[in-house]
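TASK: fixed-backbone design
INPUT:
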């Protein structure tokens, strides 16, 4: 559809300080006695210290909140904001009877128990998405990296598309839904993919291609802003970032730091090396393998098949060799963070506990922030 009016419109890209980072962590609020969802977000906002009110924000359900870091230079700074906010929310919860859980899904709650936050945008989404939004008992980790201009953002975005299974495999924490073991490591992923404008996006040869697609959707009345595009990774012109959205929420803060560190590193690497495009069916297969098997899943790479864990190690090794982490000032941290890869992903630990106990409530408790 080249040459139409949409292709002639322009999006302003807010240039950011290169490779700065920020993140958003969606968390559940659960009752302390039985781990059921607790519609207590209003209690949190009434009792938060003033300095945390910009960091903790409402979300689509009243049984969840989102923690939003400011723009940071280093991944460990982002994690420190998460740590502080989570501890404060848990402190409030001690008085009001709830705890914080950071999993990709609630393990046994049902849509009938949910309450939609009464914000205009969420109510409009409910009108459009119907039952899909009501069963949206899912929680994610979203990460932003800043780019100095729109074309550098496109390069970062394109490279990250190839590595989505790595980020998903590192974060998987949602093997249970509606009280059942789904057989998957990230059922959140499959729920999210039911939405229009969700899942693996397409590559762009230039920012103008992204603009053309964006305005065709907007002019058709399907979106109002970039917030209505829910791809696994998206260009966010308003912030001057590329945003990674494929990850499950996760309570392991060092794991979150590793994910941010790799994403930040790939964003820099994309400016130095020309990336390659992979067949969309291969992208889908690789993502499915992460969804189904987490880090143990297979990854179809340009030079053959390996596990997603092996692919993750190779990415880190390559960026170490090329001085990417040293350039970003994260090289001293990456040595410690690599120990995360030697641990089982949270989803695997949850599945092992469930197979021994048959109790999804114990699995739910594994998402508590400790």
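OUTPUT:
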């Amino acid at each position: 559809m080249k040459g139409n009016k949409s292709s002639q419109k322009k999006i302003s890209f807010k240039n950011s300080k290169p490779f700065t980072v920020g993140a958003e962590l969606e968390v559940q609020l659960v009752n302390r006695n039985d781990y059921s969802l607790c519609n207590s977000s209003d209690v949190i906002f009434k009792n938060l210290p003033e300095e945390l009110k910009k960091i903790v924000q409402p979300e689509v359900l009243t049984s969840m909140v989102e923690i939003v870091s400011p723009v940071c230079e280093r991944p460990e700074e982002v994690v420190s904001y998460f740590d502080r906010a989570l501890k404060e929310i848990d402190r409030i919860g001690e008085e009001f009877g709830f705890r914080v859980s950071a999993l990709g899904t609630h393990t046994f709650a049902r849509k009938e128990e949910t309450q939609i936050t009464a914000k205009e945008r969420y109510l409009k989404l409910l009108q459009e998405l119907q039952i899909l939004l009501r069963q949206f008992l899912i929680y994610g980790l979203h990460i932003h990296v800043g780019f100095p201009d729109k074309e550098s953002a496109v390069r970062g975005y394109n490279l990250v598309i190839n590595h989505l299974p790595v980020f998903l495999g590192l974060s998987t924490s949602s093997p249970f839904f509606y009280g059942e073991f789904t057989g998957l490591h990230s059922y959140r992923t499959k729920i999210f993919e039911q939405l229009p404008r969700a899942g693996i996006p397409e590559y762009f040869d230039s920012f103008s291609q992204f603009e053309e697609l964006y305005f065709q959707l907007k002019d058709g009345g399907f979106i109002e802003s970039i917030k209505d595009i829910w791809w696994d990774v998206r260009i966010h012109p308003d912030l001057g970032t590329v945003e990674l959205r494929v990850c499950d929420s996760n309570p392991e803060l060092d794991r979150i730091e590793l994910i941010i560190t790799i994403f930040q590193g790939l964003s820099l690497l994309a400016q130095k090396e020309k990336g390659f495009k992979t067949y969309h069916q291969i992208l889908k297969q690789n993502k499915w393998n992460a969804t189904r098997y987490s880090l143990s899943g297979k990854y179809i790479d340009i030079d053959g098949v390996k596990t997603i864990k092996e692919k993750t190690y190779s990415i880190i090794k390559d960026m170490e060799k090329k001085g990417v982490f040293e350039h970003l000032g994260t090289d001293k941290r990456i040595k410690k963070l690599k120990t995360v890869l030697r641990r089982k992903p949270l989803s695997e630990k949850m599945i092992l506990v469930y197979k021994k106990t048959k109790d999804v409530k114990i699995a739910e408790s594994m998402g508590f922030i400790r």
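COMMENT: The first strand starts at residue 21 and ends at 31.
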